Amino acid sequence: MPLPVRSLPVLQNWDCQGCSACCRHYHVSVSTEERKLIESQGWEKEPEFQGVPMFVSSGGWLSKSSYRLNHRPDGACVFLGPDNRCRIHNKFGSAAKPLACRVYPYSLVPVGDHWRLGLRFSCPSAADSLGRPLSEHLKDANEFAALLEAEWGSAAVTRLPPELQGSQTVTWSDLFRIVTAISKVLADEEDDIERRWRRVLFLLTLLRKSRLDGKGEPEKAVTGGRLSELLHILASAADDEIPQEADEVPPPGWVGRMVFRPMVALYARKDTGPDKGSAQASMTGRLFSAIQFSRGKGTIPRVHGAIKSATFADTNKPFGKLSDKSSSLLTRWARVKVESLQFCGPINFGLGVWDGLESLAATFPAAMWLARVLVASGHSVDDAITLGVRVVDDNFGFNKLLGSVRQRFALRLLAARGELPKLIAWYGR
Q1: Which of the chain's termini has less CB crowding within 10 Å, N or C?
Q2: What torsion, rounded to 10 degrees, do the Cα atoms 343, 320, 289, 357 define?
Q3: Dihedral of CA 9/11/17/23: which sign?
Q4: Residue 93, exposed/middle/buried by CB under 10 A (0-12, 13-18, 19+)?
């Protein structure tokens, strides 16, 4: 029997609204079996496919054996119909589509005796929480989990919990205790979302100094009820110790800004689809973009198509009190990522739990930085924050550059120098 899927306690809805964004923005890789199945469906007989290849090589000049679905000049997948529906789905049903198309925007993470169900907020419907509660999608999610389990084999069932840091590990049940404690802090609506993230970072600082596994002395390990009690005490200490208001936090220093700007450039970029930034179109453009982000002055390069005329100075203009809509979105986004464990392990470049939580915390100032750019480009604040979340989440865990040694070092530098809470407070204003 395949492992069951458990939905999240977070109040999050989703249903496909037929916006077709995923069919236009993503390059979908297909397996040999999927390619053969689609080729057997007779699409070459249809007028729309005359002279139009269904697949293109995605392996570059080094390999011609990898393929993805082709896209038309307007950016749409060749199988996207004029009604914004998938032709394969309409004619042969969902099971005839590539698995990647079927699973999106679900995120399924194997965690010992079950799968955790999450969502990618790059999907507009997920960001806006449109449709049925996520708990009502368990039938489909269990089907996809079974397919992934069959594809991955024993790796899904026998996967061990990710390390906290270094070689320090805990059991799945204790990891869930940690995740629950973090999510509880993020759910505290008595605080602004930026302060909740600062509380989480303070809690992480204390946990990094703790040796929960006993360091070779099992009798000294902090597990079970003792761990829950420790987490409660540390969370209370975090609430007491950190400043109440963002304006009470010192602004990020020169090092923090220098390290953050190249990181936020990676989170803001779009390299494929109709929203591809013009700054990504050539080697010269990418080089100029890197120089501009390093300088942090003048006009912001268009690393994403939604960026119009904005300057680096625009990113320092505070929003003031966030609307309930934006606060709810930022809360849901954070809690879904935490509770589904989308922030650590293989799904986030193999990061340990503490590093993974810090990488997730860094997405908050990245999304708010981009939202300021989008406001300067003509969007309303709520729309800018929503789009900022979608763009940043599109890259989180997927842009391989964010998993590079250089970016891991940058993240640790921000955390070690105390710059990460300063960035959260500064861009959360």
Answers
A1: N
A2: -10
A3: negative
A4: exposed
Phi, psi of 30 (to 5 degrees): -125, 145
DSSP character at residue 9: S
Give the tokens for residue 228: 């829950």
Q: Amino acid identity, residue 192?
A: D
Q: Give the type of residue at 429.
A: R
What is the spatial distance between Cα 172 and Cα 346, in angstroms, rounded to a whole number? Answer: 15
Long-range contacts of 276-282 (CB under 8 A, 24+ apart): 276/305, 277/301, 277/302, 277/303, 277/304, 277/305, 277/307, 278/302, 278/305, 279/303
DSSP letters spanning 361-409: HHHHHHHHHHHHHHHHTT--HHHHHHHHHHHHHHHTTT-GGGGSHHHHH
Angle, alpha carbons 283-285-290 (nearest 5°): 95
Confidence of residue 51 (pLDDT cuts 50, 70, 90): confident
* Count of residues in the chain: 429
User: Residue 62's pLDDT is what?
Assistant: 53
The pLDDT tens digits of the residues spanning 252-263 come to 999 999 999 999
pLDDT at 221 over 60: yes
Strand partners, 5: 115
* The one-letter amino acid at 201: L
* Inter-residue contact 108 to 340 (CB < 8 Å): no
Q: Residue 92 burial (CB < 10 Å; 0-12/13-18/19+)?
A: middle
User: How far are the Cα atoms of 308, 312, 313, 391 from residue 299, in angstroms, in the given order?
Assistant: 10, 6, 9, 20
Residue 59 corresponds to which amino acid? G
Two tokens at 177?
């205790």
Q: Tokens in use for 236?
A: 């209370």
Helix axes 224-241, 193-208, angle to 10 degrees: 130
402-415 pLDDT tens trace: 999 999 999 999 99
The residue that leads in pLDDT, 394 or 221, is 394
Cβ-proximal residues to 247 (8 Å cutoff; 6+ apart), any chain:
425, 429
Give the pair of three-digit tokens for residue 216: 């070779």
Cα separation, 324 vs 188, in Å, equals 14
